[in-house]
Amino acid sequence: MLLKIAVLLTLVCVLCRWALGKWPWQYMDGPPSRSQALRNARDLLKVERGADRAQILAAHKRLIAVVHPDRGGSNAQVHQANDARDLLLAELPPSAPGPDETDPERTE
């Protein structure tokens, strides 16, 4: 009897993984914290903590070249790369606008 229950639970777990893409116990975890999301974004783009804007953009460009659908990647991978880039750029401290970043509403 106990063996039947174990086999049934295993089967349910495998079917859940196959049908939904996650193991059943992964649904019990909450959403990742901000620090976990930042670490995942850095890992995905392969940049170090404290990377500047140019490093983040260069890493994003390299990753997109690999995961673009025209190169055998998927739209989901492109979205993940874009989300990682946006998250890391949002964490950068505000800086003074560069020479090519003028305010379009300001007239002289």
Q: What is the topological layout?
A:
Elements (H helix, E strand, L loop, with lengths): L1 H19 L13 H12 L7 H15 L7 H17 L17
Helix pairs in contact: 2-4, 3-4
Description:
This protein is an all-alpha fold. It has two domains: 1-27; 31-93, DnaJ domain (Helix Hairpins). It contains four helices and no strands. The protein has helices at 2-20, 34-45, 53-67, 75-91. Helix 3 runs antiparallel to helix 4 (75-91). The longest helix has 19 residues, at 2-20. The model has no long low-confidence stretch (mean pLDDT 86).
Structural class: mainly alpha
Segments where pLDDT lies below 50 for 5+ residues? none
* Fourth CATH level, the homologous superfamily of the largest domain: DnaJ domain
CATH architecture of the largest domain: Orthogonal Bundle
**Rg value:** 21 Å
How does the overall form come out from the CA principal axes? elongated
Number of domains: 2
End-to-end Cα distance: 83 Å
Give the rounded overall mean pLDDT: 86
> What is the CATH topology of the largest domain?
Helix Hairpins
Q: How much helix, percentage-wise, in residues?
A: 55-70%
Question: Main beta sheet: strand number and arrangement?
Answer: none
State the order of secondary-structure elements, H for helix, E for strand: HHHH
Total beta strands? 0
CATH top level label of the largest domain: Mainly Alpha
Beta-strand percentage range: under 5%
Total DSSP helices: 4
